[in-house]
Amino acid sequence: MTRDIRLTLVGKPGCHLCDDAREVVQAVVADVEAMDAAPRILFDERSILDDEALAARYAEEIPVLLIDGRVHNYWRIDPVRLKTALLAG
User: Fold this and answer.
1) Whole domain around residue 63: which residue ranges?
2) Which of 9, 22, 23, 55 could make an SS bond with 48 (beta carbons 3.0 to 4.6 A apart)?
3) pTM above 0.90, yes or no
């Protein structure tokens, strides 16, 4: 049975680090999804400008990447670390 992994990128429009993080996440997701027996990865983005709770929590750390609701990384996303996390367990 394929497991689901939910990735959420928290950022805001006009944030160059957020744009860089998005590119890294999309490349890693494409790489993982091309593998046999890959997990199903659900990716969405949230803006701190649209959510006061996210802004209060992450305003100084964006971009923040959450895996299944838990912080995986912030500011710069390491592609090797992300791929390892997506393939674990």
Assistant:
1) 4-87
2) 55
3) yes
